[in-house]
């Protein structure tokens, strides 16, 4: 059961396991953003069996300063950025390779802008040639991901991402309906 932790400013910070949630709750460091989920979790804790079908989102009571970190173009990060989809043919698979758009044999570097997720068939077809030489095209131009893309790690957890987006929409609705509440995301 992954748990999304938000900063007090509602910025996503991390996804933690339920054991870490228990520690944060016992130290009174977090609060639940959904009252019904809070009740379910408290009941589960009393039963000593922590389970929840609903996504769990908690908010830190104190703001945590987050240093800027440059995300590296690792295999995992490239596959997440490209949504586990071959950037040449659109095939979705967990069994993808990485392809250098400008091949390393021709001076290409392992950068965000030069690496894409690629199926084995397309990778073999392209080889160490340029896209125009084999008449292939990218579905999307690759770009670097920065820490400002706060929900980057949420790509691994689609249910949490959806719950977080719904929470933000309801929070924004609350903000527009009642100007005394100030929520900055």
Walk me through what this model shows.
Helices cover 30% and strands 14% of the residues. The chain has 2 domains: 2-68 and 149-172, no CATH class; 75-133, DNA Binding (I), subunit A (Orthogonal Bundle), CATH 1.10.30. It starts with a strand and ends in an 8-residue tail after the last helix. The chain has a 4-stranded mixed β-sheet. The protein has a two-stranded antiparallel ribbon with strand order 5-6. The protein has 185 residues and is of the alpha+beta class.
SSE run: EEHEHEHEEHH
Largest sheet: 4 strands, mixed
Number of helical regions? 5
* N-C termini distance: 25 Å
Rg for CA atoms: 21 Å
Residue ranges: pLDDT <50 for 5 or more in a row? Answer: 175-185
The total strand number stands at 6
Rounded mean pLDDT is 81
Residues in helix, %: 25-40%
By secondary-structure content and strand pairing, the structural class works out as: alpha+beta
Order of neighbouring strands in the sheet with most strands:
2-1-4-3
Taken from the alpha-carbon principal axes, the silhouette is elongated
How many structural units, i.e. domains?
Answer: 2
The percent range for strand residues is 5-15%
Pfam family, one: HNH_5
Protein name: HNH endonuclease
Organism: Dictyobacter arantiisoli
InterPro entries: HNH_5, HNH_nuc, NA-targeting_endonuclease
Structural descriptors:
185 residues, 2 domains, four-stranded mixed beta sheet, two-stranded antiparallel sheet, alpha+beta, DNA Binding (I), subunit A, 30% helix, endonuclease activity
